[in-house]
Amino acid sequence: MKKRISIILTFIMIFSLTLTGFAETNEIKVQLNGENVAFDVAPQVINGTTFLPARNIVEKLGGTIDYAAATKTITVKKDGTTVTLQVDNKSAKIEKDGEVKEITLNESPKIINGRTLIPVRFISEAFDTKVGWDEFERTVVVIDYNQIVKSLDETLKSKTPAFYEFLNTGYKQPDTLNSKCNFSIDFKSTPSKGSMDNYSPLTMMGAFEGGFDVTATSSMNNESMLIDMNIKAKGMVKEFLNNEAFGLKGLDDINAKILFNDKSLYIQSDVFNKVEDLKSLNIGNKWVKFDISEEDMASIKQMIEIIKSDDTKPIDALYASIKNPTTDLTVDTYESTTMIAEVLPMLLSDDNFKLSKSGNTKTYTLKIDSDDFIKLITDISSKYSDEDLTKDADFLKFKDAFKFNYDVKIEVKDDYVTGETANMNVDFDSEEDGKFNLGFKLNSSVSDINSDSIKIDVPADSETIDSKVLENMGL
């Protein structure tokens, strides 16, 4: 009998623990701007919609709320936006900047146990606040990105004045120009003999060496644009693109010209003479001509108008990217996003990002090296974890093996960008893992801005092949 009672008690205890765990797992939490917030009424999920007590969530979002008991109407205001809802009514109104938008809710506000509850997603998004659902943590995630951007703007203005000016400059787009650009990238991986035992990333890469050199010129006037580009491969990339065993030959060094105007797009390239499947088309040095209207492509004038009408400043683009995240929100999103306000001042203070002025010309320079990155990593780690990286053996090995430098120079004249250079080099040299190097160089310049003398010759009909002819041949 005692044994039977023991079994029953054990079963009851396990069952109760299971129920407790199930309840805890299914308890819905709410995180607002990185902080878990408590409500006097627990969040309710009704037909897939999460509801929160109206007054609590509105005030936590920084708004004010008024409830008319006679009509069961809820009026919420924040920063010039007024939202009107009604209990048991799926119709809602959002009034902002003199415009009224009628909204049909998936679920209407409700009164439960004497408390008025409203859909958290609707009220949050009405105030331009993002809402997400972290399934693993069973947490409603609410983030006010406007608040993040406001804080970041104040931080950049006070701690990175030169960079802040750069971001706030409205760069002009020229009507006509000539430009030159040289770009190169080199990489080399040499795993050590013992890296296989260490499961090193370099082992996965293997011994590899290669790169590309790219040179390009472009011209643009009010009628046409011409781009002339040459791409040369180096090292093992060159060997691969010139390997007849793979059906390749001469693709390690190719040239392409692209010209377009209001009516047509033209392409000329030696690729047509190097790829076996294209040789039979007998294109040679002729230009392949495409009809822009039939291809539904923008004309040169339309492109210029689009470019010139875009008065977005770099800071606008930065803040827009923050306000419109491309990934689902999780309980870690707020912290990772706000970390930008800490990282940027560390890397882009006036010690690293400098501004010099001479007449109507501004020159911005940026210099970052491995010491800057090591300090950034240790500072962030000390703030967000209990780990002291300065005493971590693996991190100290990484610090000794890692070398990095990044130099950028941007010249702006009369608010037109006239030149840019960039040099980046990453070195990793470890006895355990091996060696890795990545090099990057860019040099570009713009001249003849808004000049009337830029001439671009459009190919004559005798120098072209209509793309329709190639389509008929199966291309």
Describe this entry's structure for a reader.
The structure is a single chain. α4 packs parallel to α14 (340-348) and α14 (340-348) packs antiparallel against α15 (370-384). The protein starts with a helix and ends with a helix. The protein is globular and about 80 Å long. A twelve-stranded mixed β-sheet has the order 20-21-22-23-24-14-15-16-17-18-19-25. Strands 5-6-7-8-9 form a five-stranded antiparallel β-sheet, with helices on one face. A hairpin with a 2-residue loop joins β20 (353-358) and β21 (361-369). By secondary structure, it is an alpha+beta fold. The chain has two domains: 29-143, Copper Amine Oxidase, Chain A, domain 1, CATH 3.30.457; 164-469, no CATH class. It has 17 helices and 25 strands. The longest helix is centred in the N-terminal third of the chain and has 25 residues, at 2-26.
